[in-house]
Fold:
Amino acid sequence: MQGCSRRSLMKTSLIGAAAAGTASLGAAQAAQAKPVSAKTYDVVVLGAGPSGLVTAITAHDKGAKVVVLEKCDRPDGNAIFALGSVCGWGTRHQKEQGITDTADAFYAMMMDISKQLGDKALNRTYTDNISAGIDWLESEIGVKFGKIRQMPYPRLGRTCRVVGDGLTGGARLVQKLLEAAKKRGIEIKYEHKAIELIHDEKFAVKGVKVLTPEGQKTFMSRGGVCFCTGGFSANPELVDRYIGGYATRMVLRGSRSTTGANIILMQPLFVKFVNMDQFHAGPIVGETHVNPADVLNSGYGIQVNTSGNRYMDENNTYVIKARTTALQTIDNKAWVIVDSECSVLDRVIPKYDRLNSPYGKADTIEELCKQVNLPAAKIQKLVDQYNKALTENKLDEMVPPCTYKKPHPIAKAPFYAIPLQGGMTATFGGPLINTKAEVQNLDGKSVPGLYAAGNSAGGIFFFNYAGGAQLGAATVFGRIAGEQMAARAKAMAKTQKK
Structure:
């Protein structure tokens, strides 16, 4: 099946922006927008990714009549590109493998990774509910997790990897959730793009207007609407507005469908958006989507831009290297120069060869630079300076400094030039939610009937995240949103009967 076409995405995005503007003309006008053909459900979920499907399944299992509206003709969010890790503690897997962990240690890690700027209540809610969430994915959805591998901080022994069986773990997770939804008879309507929220005169959300191949339709909801549409990494205008122009030149490492529906459609409701300048970055080669993270993490070589200049400390993490490459280079392109002693070449080079992704390899620095169009004299001088500083234990005096803990010379041929670009994986910013997954407004109150989960929600992550925590958050807050919306729908039904 094909995903959304570029033409249809542009067209519907324009319509969505116009609809958002129309919604702000008056609450009364929006409240009257209920066509005769409108259908009413207990719960309306926007987006058929992990958070949306988890929300829908949970609400259904709590007795709600649910519909999932997906703007593309298949699930097309970031999850299908993901390795499929879920980060948690206290799981069956940890216990069976003798891995000791505690809630407090896990929570401290989550806050540490977010530089203490992630919302404390949301991160505590994640911590307190992730173990049950992982168990639920196994027992109720049939997700298979492989053996936990011990990894460097912060993952340690906390990452449960979905067994892909030929797919990415993320794609397999979505597949299993779709199977569970189908088994329950949950309606999933594809090519249904949300273009306007319907609310009453008090801004309580009552439903959503969508664009379909047959025209506009309206879906009303007793329990409200939950946004599970991802972030805004694929919307250059929003990226420029909230992060900066340099970030619009980053390579998308995920979906082209995450265009900020949560931001565009919620703005008329005076929603509080947080952490809007924050995102996850990673290295990538735009033309082939090869990931050069292994060589960037190896502790070997120097990193130069296309002008032949070093522009950052090579000891930084691959996340910072990707972000800084986009920020410090005009063309968002750079090279890592290493020699044949680099310990990860046996993993990196076959990957480049398999995907016909170009790189440089030569017996001299001069010939290497000719291959990849770098200034040979400048690069040779840099390599000589680096080797001399290493010998004299003065790498930290270079400009910029190089702070490798165990540096290696660039001396043994053949030499390699591995290309990289800064890529954007996902945005962290969005509408602030509370521990009930309710969207908050600028007055510090919940917007009645409006929920968000997954990357559509803001507040959980800042600066960075522990690998697997995004799918973990989708699971935790999707389950919470489903429970809350089902309960709200029952309460509304009782009120209407009176």
Observations:
- Residues 5-36 have pLDDT under 50 and may be disordered.
- The CA atoms of residues 288 and 357 lie 6 Å apart.
- The first strand starts at residue 39 and ends at 41.
